[in-house]
Specification:
Length: 181
């Protein structure tokens, strides 16, 4: 099961390498099947695209390029040329296909269409006004980035249910310890 803490697909996709500054980050895209599951669980596609190993490598390459571009935008540094070229290259592909019927919307596509959709979203957001809303989760280990669209721009965590509550519980335990000492 994949997690979608931040609600912006391309940033949740970047987050599939969890705790990336740890010595041993957690790789959530460890197999083509995991990539298929990500596309369906994210809601980007209704039908798994049937990824193979080469497509998984392309997906990881895009993810790491998206991370480099996002991290640079977050630090207000120039965007790294190699990563930019990779994002722009994958953004040229056709996006996921949407079709309307009486049952609603059906989203289907290949892996490259799914990746193009993510790359295009990143281009629009990092290149647009919302780039100023990029934040990194306040739980240091997490490293998930998100867009702070909250009122007053006071969102501290990628997700309250996970990181916010973990940090608050740890602070509570620390207070209890110091009171008991
Ligand atoms: Zn977090």
């Amino acid at each position: 099961m994949h997690a979608f803490p931040c609600g912006t697909p391309f940033l949740d996709f970047v987050g599939t390498l969890r705790a990336r500054r740890n010595a041993e980050p957690t790789e959530m895209l460890a197999s083509p099947q995991a990539l298929d599951d990500w596309f369906v669980e994210s809601g980007l596609m209704d039908v798994a695209p049937g990824a193979d190993h080469a497509e998984l490598a392309t997906a990881v390459s895009l993810r790491e390029a998206l991370y480099s571009v996002t991290a640079a935008a977050l630090a207000k540094e120039p965007l790294p040329a190699d990563a930019l070229a990779e994002v722009n290259r994958q953004a040229t592909g056709l996006p996921v296909q949407v079709q309307l019927s009486d049952e609603g919307t059906t989203r289907t596509g290949s892996v490259s269409q799914g990746l193009a959709t993510l790359a295009r979203e990143a281009v629009e957001i990092v290149g647009g006004a919302e780039a100023d809303l990029l934040r990194e989760c306040s739980r240091p280990e997490c490293t998930q980035t998100y867009l702070d669209r909250s009122r007053g721009r006071r969102r501290e965590w990628c997700a309250m249910e996970t990181c916010g509550n973990r940090v608050k519980a740890a602070a509570y335990r620390a207070r209890r310890r110091s009171q008991n000492a």
